[in-house]
Amino acid sequence: MKTKYSSLFTLPYLIWSLIFIIVPMGLVVIFAFTTENGQFTLDYVSQVGEYTNVLVRSVWLAAIATVICLLIGYPLAFLMSRMPGFQQRTMLMLIMLPMWMNFLLRTYAWMTILEKNGLLNKLFGLFGLGPFDMINTQGAVVLGMVYNYLPFMILPLYSIMTKIDNRTIEAAQDLGANTKNVFLRIVIPLSMPGISTGITMVFVPSVSTFIISRMLGGGGNLLIGDLIDLQFLGNAYNPHLGSAISLVLMVLILLCMSILNQFNDDEDREGMLL
Amino acid sequence: MKWLSKTYIWVLMAFLYAPIGVLIFFSFNQSKSRSNFTGFTLDWYVKLFHNDLIMQSLINTLIVALASSIIATIIGTVAAVGLSGMRKWTKSIVMNITYLPVVNPEIVTGVSFMLLFVMAQGILRQINLDFEFGYITLILSHVTFNLPYVILNVLPKMRQMDKYVYEAALDLGCPPAKAFFKVVIPEIMPGILSGFLMSFTYSLDDFVISYFVSGATSQTLPITIYSMTRRKVSPEINAISAIIFVVVLAVLLLVNFHGAHKEKQSRREGARI
């Protein structure tokens, strides 16, 4: 609909975005590069270097969680996409249901299961095993990430795989391709946009989380998110350093996403909405 | 092969649902233990409804979610209508700004809001205006992260709409404002509704952004749940989980049933043609 009022209609939204998207982002950048007196400085940005081990840990744990989600989610998404309609809808609902529970509750559930006197250790006890230290480990943090974000991997994969025509697969089989080749040369290339959306949707929240690491990782497995939180609401109050770390986090994510984007030029942004 | 894929699905479902099942199971536990079931009780549910802090935060959550999703729906719908008539390159600039809060990590968005509101406090104090972190900051930030979802839901509907219907209304002497409300709005209503519902649920569920912009007196339910998890034992959380689970299940079943019904109907209509 083209009218002369078009730009007038978007005006309230543009003003809103200016105040609440552009200005806050600008503030993060300004805070990262200034001292309390408002003078330009690179101190805070270079100070982030002291936390390299935390940065590396965050990226590492998030990457492991993302790979596990992909490995678990991919077969499921494929199986789902080949089911009859009613079963597909039911499965979709079953996967979305935990997603709509608040993630704090989901993470809390694992807290109670992995505890020293928790359910899992009790179960091991029945067989004369354990008790194992499961909570407050990096494994527990990865588990929390996988559990919380697995649906974000399955849904975009599933929605791209429903578009893969069964006849394409059958044609490949008719032409003599074995199961391995069908997957490697037909299914995986065709589902590439779903893979990259899924990876982004798991990796971004995983690498920036601060609750999962706090609840399941104890005090010893701080991630970037925890560092940022400490600078703003914790004891170490220093919004300048916090902004510098946020900036580094954003650049890190942009970098990872631009690497991913090399693999697919199709922009399938609808998947982002799920 | 068949049984292999079946087992795989069952194992995954167990992984997804076992933790939630455990939570709900222990909401009926008499003792506060999270691993010893000592007897059945509904006490925690009774306690939950008599807990003023939890009830107040539930009310706060609903107020913030409702207010922010209504405001976001209005601004977003109007923006989407305008956007659909804009030139390509201006549109793509605006859309890139729109995607920013969607792709940005939540914690960075939360922190940036906090910086903005602290700065606004400083500026307003100079003209003797004081505001606290609370409903205002919560609603403003929730509207901001809800807006993309409204726009991205309404925009496709605008694209599908037959623009000649609007022009026909004008040709037949309908004033533009009336044509907008009588012709355009009904056409894009499904998009507006799904945008509103999406905003509302995201707003209800949000923790990270609210955590940075809520005041001491305006905690939302997720924030209260968070402070409860910090305490060692709080069986009320289990009761909350059970209630939320049932509500979500009911809503999903309803939406799913409605969707299936509509699909059948449209298929029947298709067959008739």
Task: Summarize the model shown.
The complex is a heterodimer of chains A (274) and B (273). Chain A is mostly helical and 274 residues long.
In CATH, the architecture of chain A is Orthogonal Bundle
Mean pLDDT of chain A: 89
CATH fold field value of chain A? MetI-like fold
Known CATH architecture of chain B = Orthogonal Bundle
Give the beta-strand count of chain A: 0
Computed over alpha carbons, the radius of gyration of chain A is: 23 Å
Q: Within the CATH hierarchy, at the fold level, what is the topology of chain B?
A: MetI-like fold
Order of helices and strands of chain A: HHHHHHHHHHHHH
Largest interface between protein chains, with number of residues from each side: A-B, 84 and 85 residues
**Which shape of chain B, going by the Cα principal axes?**
globular
Mean pLDDT score of chain B: 89
Unreliable stretches covering 5 or more consecutive residues of chain B: none
Question: How many β-strands of chain B, per DSSP?
Answer: 0
Oligomer: heterodimer
Structure in words:
The complex is a heterodimer of chains A (274) and B (273). Chain A is mainly alpha-helical and 274 residues long. Chain A has helices spanning 6-32, 43-47, 52-81, 85-99, 103-114, 119-126, 138-161, 166-174, 179-190, 192-207, 211-217, 224-232, 239-261. The longest helix of chain A has 30 residues, at 52-81. Chain A has 13 helices and no strands. In chain A, helix 5 packs across helix 7, helix 8 (166-174) packs antiparallel against helix 9 and helix 12 (224-232) packs antiparallel against helix 13 (239-261). Chain A has a single domain (42-273), classed as MetI-like fold, CATH 1.10.3720.10. Chain B has 273 residues and is an all-alpha fold. The longest helix of chain B has 37 residues, at 236-272. At the A-B interface, helix 1, helix 3, helix 4, helix 5 and helix 10 of A face helix 1, helix 3, helix 4, helix 5 and helix 6 of B.
